[in-house]
Amino acid sequence: MKTMFKNNDLTQGKIWKVILNFTLPIFLGTLFQSLYTTIDAIIVGKFAGKDAFAAIESVMSFQRLPVSFFIGLSSGATIIISQYFGAKEKEDVSKASHTAMLFAIVGGLILSILSCILSPYFIGLIKVPQKIFHEAYIYTFICFSGMVFSMIYNIGSGILRALGNSKTPFHILIFANILNIVLDLIFVINFNLSVVGVGLATLISQIVSAILVFVVLMRTNLDCRIYIKKLTFYKKYLKKIFVLGLPIAIQSVIYPIANTTIQSKINMFGVNSIAAWAISGKLDFLIWSVSDAFCISSSTFVAQNYGAKKHHRVKKGIISSVIMSISMILVISITLFIWSKDLAPFLIED
């Protein structure tokens, strides 16, 4: 258990190696987090049919909009905490962590409520076919109702990563995804719940991951330890989170907005087109996972070293991150280009 609470000082060691070791769990964690919906789609595609698969995928881009915005906003918290950790400002690390966690809880609740209320309107706006409209709405409602737990997990894992711990969030995601797979199979195959079943499985898994990361933060002996009684909005840190996080949040939703616009046009062509577009999106996400992982790791690396006033490591770290990111993206792109036709049948039976 002690290893779960261990931090990693990114201001020491060979730069490329430190970044790579820190990035790999984040990359794998990003993949595992995306597996919530990917596994949902695969299982309904195999056992509940193409319509159920299309129902989930027809709203996927829309579902990513609010989540991407708040995750981008929470990145501001990770950067702030990383800077304070690098500067050895223990009290600032603690207060910023408590502010960020309360923001996750309050912001997540508001996001869940608003998203559930507005989802029927937006599902209609993106022209989901009437044939799968009801299933798409039910799945969206269930997923949106659990956004507060997704926010708690993402902020909690961001706090841990700020102190250089990228492995604990990854371990939690592994457990949550195994649970999600088991529940998906039980609900879809045994209880024949189709889209409702995979939605409930995802919700339960997100609740478990949120509880686990919160417990880790409450039991750690590091400066980011969370005490329920100390959860409060410290104006100084909340302002900094918004100043740094808002530009990232806006940038984070540009791609989902573009995809949602395209998705609304694809939806007009029916179930077959939705399914085909979804398959390409699942494979394409591998590339974006690399980019996102290096973005998170490099920002944490830069923040820690900036806080420690080791500016020479900042420039070298950025260059190393760009080179490694491009290299991995090229390898994945070439692999997908060659074997994409062989990978597609794993996602859907038809």
From TrEMBL:
It is a multi-pass membrane protein. It comes from the Bacteria. InterPro entries: MATE_fam (IPR002528), Membrane_Transporter-Flippase (IPR052031). It is found in: Cell membrane. One of its GO terms (cellular component) is plasma membrane. Keywords: Cell membrane, Membrane, Transmembrane, Transmembrane helix, Transport. GO terms for molecular function: antiporter activity; xenobiotic transmembrane transporter activity. The chain crosses the membrane at residues 20-45, 65-87, 99-124, 136-156, 168-189, 195-217, 237-258, 285-306, 318-339. PANTHER family: MULTIDRUG RESISTANCE PROTEIN YPNP-RELATED (PTHR43549). NCBIfam families: matE. This is MATE efflux family protein.
